Amino acid sequence: MAALPPDAFILAADTVVACGRRILPKAEDEATARACLSLLSGRRHRVYGGLALLTPAGGLTIRRVVSQVGFKRLSEEELSGYLASGEWHGKAGGYAIQGQAAALIPWIAGSYSNVVGLPLHETAQLLAGRGYRVCPESC
Predict the structure, then answer these.
(1) Which of 14, 80, 121, 131 is catalytic?
(2) In the annotation, is 7 catalytic?
(3) How many C-beta atoms lie closer than 10 Å to residue 97's C-beta?
(4) pLDDT of residue 122
């Protein structure tokens, strides 16, 4: 592993989709994606984004961002059509809101970018609060 510069910030993030008390997997096969989407159909669920930032001085800060998402009730035709797109592959909960699944989601509360996979505003605030220059001088 290459040595990091002494002024390096290290950011780590991950996303979890929860429906009720169930944590949904990343869909690696169509059967898992179908099961996830069938569970989400007609329901609201939560998307948790976790952030961890290690500063050059060795300080560690963690944050959790929660968004709520509402899925419409999916017909078999809609479910099969989305599965045929392949967008679900490798996605937490079996969907990608930034793609075709956007047509299946009539309601969201909270950070859209968190549902995509990285809560941008919260990440920028976390970095800025720990001394990292988030935007150029003109910001």
Answers:
(1) 14
(2) no
(3) 22
(4) 96
- Find all residues with CB under 8 Å of 88, minimum gap 6, and list them: 27, 30, 33, 36, 37, 82, 94, 95, 96
What's the confidence (pLDDT) of residue 126? Answer: 95
Per the CB < 8 A criterion, the answer to whether 55 and 130 are in contact is yes
The four Cα atoms 99, 101, 104, 105 give a dihedral, to 10 degrees, of -70
Enumerate long-range contacts of 2-8, CB under 8 Å, 24 or more apart: 6/56, 7/56, 8/56
pLDDT digits (tens, 9 = 90+) for 48-99: 999 999 999 999 999 999 999 999 999 999 999 999 999 999 999 999 999 9
At 46, is the secondary structure helix, strand, or coil? strand
- What global pTM score does this model have? 0.90
How high is the mean pLDDT of the chain?
Answer: 94
